Amino acid sequence: MELSTELETQIGRWRGYLQRHQAISPADLDELEDHLREQIADRRATGLDEEEAFLVAIKRIGNLDAVSREFAREHSDRLWKQLVLVPEEPDGGGAPSWRELAVVLALAVGAGVAVKAGLAWMGGDGALARNAGLLVFPFLAAYFAWKRRLTARVGAALLVPFAALAVVLNAYPFVPGGSTELLAALHAPVVLWLVVGVAYAGGRWRSDSRRMDFVRFTGELAIYYTLLALGGAVLVGLTFGALQAVGIDLEPVLEDWILPFAVPGALVVAAWLVEAKQNVVENIAPVLTRVFTPLTILMLVSLLAVLAASGGLIDVDRGLLILMDAILVLVLCLLLYSISARDSLAPPGLFDVLQLVLVGAALAVDAVMLTAMLTRIAEFGFSPNKIAALGLNLLLLVHLVRAAWLTVGFVRGRRPFAAVERWQTRYLPVYGAWAAAVVVVFPPVFGFI
């Protein structure tokens, strides 16, 4: 039975609340949501309308789940309080799953072995850079496929983009060190990461709530991976310093063994830690977004001032344009993570206004960037790098303009926050399609140079 958009929004809010307030795996959350949908369908079959069926289903889920009771306490005005609040059951307190840890460690080691083999077979040339994502991301996708208990059919479907990219990246006669080879190496991980997202979503990529879950996961993964990298760097540095003091040089071991295994392995381990939903990062994430949003606004305003003072746009350094593109992508990531960490039921506030200012500043920077790029193309002609950068900036422009429009409507009380969320997640596949075009179409069009 197909559900209305409003009911899907309500289910998404319930799911998001549970994920933000409980150490629950996405697989268990998927099972709870499936159970909720079954309850709604059963209630609808008895003649209840959608709202009534949803409320009764929430009550039944509340009998099983303590966080649903807490959800009701915080949002009693939505009638969940009287329907969901039931006597709490004592926690079962199960032991940690050593089986999952064994799977994670095996996949982490497998990723390290793949990278080590890639170093041995491909050397340090462009082939290794092109295939870096193919050496690591399949192990991350395998973890989520195992975690979500994906069917063999869905698992086989996930293998198709990996295999297709492997053929393209290794069969194309790239000119060593050429522009199209570099573009392929930079854009292939974007496509592969969205494939990982399909595995993370349990194959339900069309669901807005699951795409937003993946956005939240990506942000938390970056935090965990950074913490692991910093901790590992300190540990390795101290160990090497102590050994060098007694005349032992472990630099060859670091380059040949530690880094090839630690860098990809830490990514799999970080994903597992995010799945475990450590409450520390859950509580820090909203704080981080509130700290870095105003700082990013100041950075963008400063960059606009620098660009305005630099004179003619045609004289803007090419390296600065590339750096500005990276900054705009970072701003977009911050915007997405801020939205994913926000309580969708909360009313508009000062932070929403700050986000609107952030989007406005990013739009101003993007407009300057587009003008500079079009000026350079008119003066010097087309090239793979210029077209790729131009396409990315046009995508960012559309994304940010629509995001600004919806955010204005939300701040003014004319649109629900769910409309802002839906736009962010539904636009993500556009970036994947563009990245795939850069990898597959650009090389033959530009003669693989």
Automatic annotation (TrEMBL):
Record carries keyword Membrane: yes
Keywords in alphabetical order: Membrane, Transmembrane, Transmembrane helix
Domain of life: Bacteria
Secretion signal span: none
InterPro entries: Perm_prefix_1 (IPR047928)
TM spans (from-to): 101-122, 128-146, 158-176, 182-201, 222-245, 257-274, 295-314, 320-341, 353-375, 387-408, 428-446
Full protein name: DUF4153 domain-containing protein
Organism listed in the record: Arthrobacter ginkgonis
